[in-house]
Amino acid sequence: MPGIGTKIKDAAAQIFVRAEANGVFDKLPAFKRDLSEYPELAVLAQNYQTIRDECLALIAGPVKIPGMDELTSYTSGGIHQIAWKSFMFKSGSFIDSNCALAPKTAALLRDIPGVWTAFFSVLEPHQHIKPHWGYWKGFVRYHLGVVIPDNNANEKCWIRINADAWDRDDRSAIAQGEKYFWHNGEAVLFDDTFLHEAANETDEVRVVLFLDVARKMAWPLALLNRFFLWIAHQDKSVKEIRRNATIKPA
User: Is the pTM above the cut of 0.85?
Assistant: First the structure.
């Protein structure tokens, strides 16, 4: 998690790793297609066309959407050194000026509890996000297909996850992972701490609505999770992300 001291961050992360291992909350499969545990997210797929229309207007408009590598030194290099951009609605708190550019989508997001990060993830043609692990088991990640070229008829837009690869020195284990092919208006959840990669192998841009949502768990652990998330999102690196993600006037 950005900005929390390494020892504190690792100790906090291990609390949730052990909780999952002890069955305090369920381990997710590679891809969770049944979103009934998070019914508050259903409103997004129900309003897919509205979200898509606002997204297409942004992409076609004069605004410059920043690249992932522009957001902060914390995200520079590595997986972010590709043509991958982020129109951010929320990073800990909402970016009001950005929200004004897609007000209907922003209004939907403001009504959903537990969302800590929300943005349009814009992956340009022929880009590959190489295998990596995420950082916090207290999140579930939500993807809604918003602009998927040819609705993935040729299965060239995908994300692959290996939910059982834990050796951080062996990213090749991704080859044994499960692939999910995005579709317009279709949503999926997954655990970002699993080894994963993604690609857009088409000639057109691919956009998903990307959320990090506080994971559902028993109340004492949920409160601890909220506490750690609140601390992390007070850090200067997250404030830097919000500042650099703010769309500048054309």
Answer: yes
